[in-house]
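Table S5 (text form). Sequence records supplied for joint modeling of the three-component complex.
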Amino acid sequence: MFRSGLFATLIGTAFGLTTPLHAQSSVYIPAVLELSGAGAVSGTNFRDGMLLAIDEINAKGGILGRKIDAPLLDTQSDAGISRAQVQKVLDNNPYVILGPVFSGSVLVDMALTQQAEIPEIVGGEAAAITQKNDPYVFRTSFGQQFSMPKIANYIRDGVKAKSVAVIWVNNDFGKGGRDTFVKEMAARNIKVVADVSTESGQADFSADVVKINAANADAIFVYLNEEESARFLREAKKQGVKAPLIGETTLLGQKVIDLAQGAAEGVRGHVGLTVDAPIPAVQDFAERFKKRYNYVCDHNGIKGYTAVYIIKHVTEKIGKFDSRLFAQTLHGITITPDDEPGVLMEVTFDANGDLDRQSFLGEVVNGKQKIVEILPKLGK
Amino acid sequence: MASFIQLLISGLATGAIYALIAVGFTLLWQTSQTINFAQGEFVMLPAFFVLAAMNWGAPFWLAALIGIAAALVVLGLLFKLIVVDPMLRYGVLPLVISTIALSLLLKESVKDFYSAQAQAFPPLVPDADVHLFGAVVSTQSLVVLGVAIATVAALHLWLNKTRTGRSMQATAQNPALARILGIPVQRMVLYTFLVNAVLVAIASILISPIYLAKFTNGETLGTAAFIAAIIGGFNQVRGAILGGIILGVLDNLSAAYLSSQYRGAFPLLILIAVILCRPQGLLGRVEERTV
Amino acid sequence: MTRLGAVVIGVALALALAAPFFLKPFGIYLLSMWAVLTIAAMGLNLTLGYAGQVSLAQGAFVGIGAYTVALLTQGGVPFALAFIAAGLLCFIVGWMLGYPALRVSHHYLAFVTLAFTTLVFLVLRNEQWLTGGIYGINGIMRPVLFGWSTGKALHFYFFSLGVLVVLALAIWWMLRSPWGRAFVALRENPIRAASVGLDTRRYTLMAFAVGSSLGGLSGALYAPLVQFIEPGSFAINMSFSLLLMVIVGGSGYFFGPFVGALVAVLLPEWMRIAEGYYLIVYAALVMVMMAFCPTGILGLVDRLAKAAMPNGRSAPAIGAERTAP
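The corresponding structure-token record, covering 996 residues in total, follows.
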């Protein structure tokens, strides 16, 4: 008896879930994100940036007169659950899907969204995402295949290093970056003399710093998540690491600088998306974000925010809610802040769904990220 | 050599924390057969009590006291009354499931009601570096090591030298006999829960300046505490200290000299070896009681 | 088996067959996940519920099975062979893991198996040449059996359900055989079992091996269901949730895993109405459930059924086959 009861409830509930919840006056743009588990920091940043943009747009009447209805679906940072959630929202005919951030989850979901011909705007940075000829997947930041060459050039030309030590976090983000980086180093004849893997959530970096110190490299490339970056920097300072510490986006964030409590001084690197960019629109956004959520937004927050405005701009350009036309239009488009202030910085999409923006070389000076050089868009 | 000493000292500091957590873990096991899978989250949580109190304007010392008091109530008293007591008579397994669920509950609550972001936590002493035998040690690590060892030593003395402490031990070893001897068994069991709460709160305040306070902190700490407890001896306070320190040092040495990708594997291999060859742990007694 | 029991099973099976026709792909995906995980939970129920060994390694066996099938089928081996290989490999590894179970029991075994799960995760993540490492394996094809493609959600569900039914019948038969009776004897009173001449060593190992191979077979279906596998999916959390399924459903009840898996797969989805707090609500519900029915849902049904028939001749509720300890 009990089982049949459960089944009845299951069917009932499933019906409940499958009934379109969105009225005609709104447009359904669900977000499938890492809201719990290992990816929760990235996922919640993306969510908060996204919600900020949605509330701004809805307050001004929405997109083409329709309010954005963006339910949040948690993947628990697991690819299997992420697939289920994407399937769930696909059943309700979404216009565009936002997220996820973890590249593994993106790679699973892509197959579904491509089949359904629904555009998916993701936070993942793994190179593989845009190498599958999927016309429905779009990034919100540089793929690692674009950011790593910039770092590599900087290490060769700026730092003039002949050898480099790499410390990376052994998850999908860190391993992908490390593999691309090592390839770029080989192409530039720079020797990788130490290759140190660390665990996500690791607290004690003394062994890793001992290894890096022993390698005696000209430069050290650090590719860790935010908190681990901060812990590593403190240990590196303690053990007196001499070689310059070079990083990508995460290492130079204000959050890392604050958490590292002085140990981030002098750290340099390439920054793709940063709230410290010397651009008034970005800084204005950062302030609104901080005011509403009471913490400093990281690059994932900017990804979420700009993604929503990209949807708004493209939709208004095509003048209707047509998912296929949306994907076609987004390929090859350039959106400037004059067209749509919400994109914050000029952005161009290519035929694979990769994007191109300005980026920055930064350095930590007096507890603040200072931009020392603006790198132009690659296409220029 | 300098780097070896560096690794040794850092390992000792980490190991002392594992020991603190492991001691409470074994106490709960001994007196109430509670395998607390939420023990790691128990260490994560008090830091947020302290931060919350500081957000209300309390100075750090007061906030730390409030944090310990809140831990006593929530992780000691309420944990026992609401989670453990109703399930105790049904054996180990339902309680295991319940503490696994509890760990999820605590993590998610901190994430949703406080923040998903890592939080800076005020240090107990000003951060400075001390040079010892060619290695650099931060004052924080030394404080962690000192406080942890002092706490466990005090606990050891209390358990062996005071009447209450000895009653607790008797309860742990043989509750039926203890009851016959007129020991208020229920109260003794409650004491172990309170002691555990204080230990995790101290551990939390000690490590958060170094680890930063974050909702996921418990995941690695909990497992480390189990391993330390078993390696040292599940039913011995001294054993937990030895286990914790072995674990901390081993983790650092293996990451530096063997393989960083497999650093997590070495403690587990030791764990399996100990369980197979000396299941009572390095310092443990053979358990006479069937569970 | 009473008439009432047969009716309930029949109704449940009819529902399992009919339900997908009323569901959209998402619902069918969840049902498929239920069928796949039920197989693994059934295996754990054998080790835990019948042989009394606490194992936290079942998630690792699901992983071993999933990787076996993914790697073999991508290497050109037909699915049916890969499926059998997954079960066989897990049987052997499970047998070996059973040896510690002979020496230690209770919580120690839980920790040995917990360590095993983490070791398997580390190997899957670090041995990139074999397993694809942290990137996982993408694009796993759904099998074609005798010219029948299971590529569609509905087809794959019926395939999984079919496998589940066949395996459930096999286990049912096994538990009715002298072997199975030995398992139960082992749980109820190991000393007596040994004294009447049961080779407790062999049966303990066997319980572990058969339970583990069911985990492997479940993984063999998990891989083509999700079509992507990564090491993180088979870390300790998977073992925890399989344990949860067995206990919540009712450990030692034949149909316990079916009910438990249903709860574990669907409850978080229902709770999503609580939006951001759904995991908190889910965790709290599990704790409440454990406090009020520690013997699991079927244990509760059993108890209520006995209470309803005070003359001692209980009307055995569905699956209430557990001989009381």
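Note: Chain A has two domains: 24-142+281-349, 145-271+359-375.
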